[in-house]
Amino acid sequence: DVEKKMFSIFNKKYDSISAKELSERIERVNLIDVRETHEYKTGHVPKARNISMGDLLKNPAKYLDEKEQYHIICQSGSRSSRTCEKLASLGYHVVNVAGGTGAYPQALKK
Question: Are the beta carbons of 75 and 48 closer than 8 angstroms?
Answer without folding.
Answer: no
